[in-house]
């Protein structure tokens, strides 16, 4: 619907529902099949558990996470971002807590698993 569709039916829609949907759209209204509408409503109430755990990280935490996955050390990161090493470590430990992990290797593994970085590109560095 966000892409501009005026109506949405499932494949198994009854012929009468298809006719109703066509009439509705032809009159300038939008049409969503009741089963689809229910799924959409439920997804707003109970979002799927498949959301990336990285969604909970701040922009700075994501930035530092990507630098860690590229093999950069805390001192290198702190110099590049004009932060103290202690601040970088604070971000690291906050990430570890949010993601329920215990180190940089686990962080990198999770980032690869969720498509935030590519194992092949990391291997070539």
TrEMBL record:
Superkingdom of the source? Answer: Bacteria
Single GO biological process annotation from the record: regulation of DNA-templated transcription
Tell me which Pfam families the record gives. Answer: GerE
Against InterPro entries, the record matches this protein to:
Sig_transdc_resp-reg_C-effctor, Tscrpt_reg_LuxR_C
Q: Which residues form the HTH luxR-type domain?
A: 50-115
Indicate yes or no for the key word Aminoacyl-tRNA synthetase: no
Entry's Gene Ontology molecular function annotations: DNA binding
Keyword DNA-binding on entry: yes
Q: Which UniProt keywords apply?
A: DNA-binding, Transcription, Transcription regulation
Q: What is this protein called?
A: BarA-associated response regulator UvrY (GacA, SirA)
